[in-house]
Amino acid sequence: MAVGVMNIEEGVSFPAKTTSHVRLSSLIAAVGGLMFGYDIGISGGVTSMDTFLKKFFPHVYEKKHRVHENNYCKFDDQLLQLFTSSLYLAGIFASLAASFLSRRYGRKPIIVSASIFFCLGALLNLFAQDLGMLIAGRLLLGLGIGFGNQTVPLFISEIAPPQTRGALNIMFQFLITIGILAASFVNFLTSTMKDGWRYSLGGAAIPALILLIGSYFIYETPASLIERGRDEEGKQVLRTIRGVEDIELEFNEIKRATEFSNNVKSPFKELFLNRENRPPLVCGTLLQFFQQFTGINVVMFYAPVLFQTMGSGNDASLISTVVTNGVNAIATIIAVFLVDKFGRKFFLVEGASQMTGTQVAIGALLFKNLHLVGPITSHVVPLIVLILICIYVSGFAWSWGPLGWLVPSEIYPIEVRNAGYFCAVAMNMVCTFIIGQFFLSALCRFRSMLFFFFGVMNVIMGLFVIFFLPETKGIPIEEMADKRWKKHWHWKNYFKQN
Questions:
Q1: What was the pLDDT predicted at 308?
Q2: How many CB atoms lie within 10 A of CB 490?
Q3: Can you give the residue ranges of the Major facilitator superfamily (MFS) profile domain (predicted)?
Q4: pLDDT at position 22, please?
């Protein structure tokens, strides 16, 4: 393999290859995304299964089958929504803990812990006998998700050379989509089984075990080792993952950054009080806010419920979900190959535009055709909605899905990296909780108007990217402030002028 050169537009160049060690470590760590995706995909299918509703939510089961029940309100139940959203409450606290623990103990132990928590939660759900046991399992899953989502994208960004950092980091999102797709297949296969929901929920243990076993074969990141005073080990890992002997320039750059980092005793205080950290804090946090308010989890969590609301049978709704999730996975591959060529901003703006059009079209179709009582009489309308959802999902999958995780992982300086990325992850968890907990209630009250709301949000986030987010492709993380923030028309005002 020929030696490449890390691309720094104005300054030092670091020799580097994208080695098999980096690819393998990135792939193994990205299995954390597989866990996350499986849970996202499994919950919507399970909550639409009659056997699950009979056991834990019998009142929802009865309401679902009432002929004259309001179409938009069949699944409006706070406890049912808590089953989906409780995971993300635990995830907020877990990601906060992980932001401190990964700085002290390294990235690798936190990834191992994520797999253990997730596996325990899956087993508890598998054997759940009552709602309390079910929610307890969801909380354990949330600890695993919080640890994994906080640590994995940072881990990949720190070991990847800048020229392929985007593609390698998008493996996390790609495996999220694979997890969602796998979950939709599992739900389809178990939907006719007696207590099939148990197998669906318990299946979450499989990706957790893959990550647990695989994590013993990954390297700790050089930045984390050097930050904790293990310089020689950091040098050796750097040589291994870069595939070259000449690593002194990059080592010295990491050493300089980590020495400054170690002088910062309170990363959160530094993050919030130092004006120079304001640009990445605002952009990283808002990207995660916007990612959730694209409306994607309306589709990912509740696609089977949505299709049943339109009058599709249980099997038809689950098949539609499989199709949607297949498109999600395929479209993400496009981002893997093209994000380091076309850049982050191009895909974010294009994706926002594509999602705006489809959300408005879906809202218009439901407004015209889905009345309060009775199914949609036309067989064409659900098909058109399915096609629109596929177009919408593809727009998300090659833009805000992967880049919502990638960009926050690559824009913070090392001294506040864990704290800053926690703010992004916490925003993701809070917004996901809000969507998971209140969407079905909002659907009941606002009906098709809800899709117009998400359309407006997509317009706002596209404008934000155009005017406030600098392009980050190909820039080493330690050089981001000098090469991007200090040259941005607005964010340069937050830096001291030389």
A1: 61
A2: 11
A3: 25-473
A4: 87
Q: What is the pLDDT of residue 2?
A: 36
pLDDT at 316: 63
Alpha helices per DSSP H over 191-215: 196-202, 205-214
Cα(9)–Cα(72) distance, integer angstroms: 53
Closest C-alpha to 393, from 418, 358, 442: 358
What's the pLDDT at 68?
A: 58
pTM: 0.77
For helices 31-47 and 20-29, angle between their N-to-C axes, nearest 10 degrees: 30
Query: What is the C-alpha separation between 43 and 335, in angstroms, rounded?
Result: 26
Q: Find tokens 């009941």 and name the residue.
A: 444
Are 230 and 240 in contact by the 8 Å Cβ rule? The answer is no
pLDDT at 178: 92
Show the tokens assigned to 247: 């690593």
Say how far apart CA 221 and CA 111 lie, in whole Å: 12
18-494 CATH fold: Growth Hormone; Chain: A; (1.20.1250)
Kindly give the residue spans of alpha helices, DSSP state H, lying in 203-295: 205-214, 222-227, 231-242, 248-262, 267-273, 278-292
Please identify every stretch of the chain with a pLDDT value under 70, giving residue numbers as ranges. 1-16, 64, 66-72, 74-76, 298-318, 370-378, 498
Helix or strand or coil: residue 4? strand
So what's the pLDDT on residue 7?
Answer: 42
Where is 5: in which H helix or E strand? strand 4-5
Per-residue burial over 200-217, b if 16 or more Cβ lie within 10 Å, else e, is bbbbbbbbbeebbebbee
Contact 299, 364 (CB under 8 A): no
Contact 176, 297 (CB under 8 A): no
**Among candidate residues 56, 2, 344, 331, the one with its CA nearest the CA of residue 176:** 331
Contact 93, 146 (CB under 8 A): yes
d(CA 208, CA 39): 11
Distance of CA 479 to the CA centre of its chain: 25
Supply the pLDDT for residue 318: 66
pLDDT score of 207: 94
Encoded tokens for 101:
């623990």
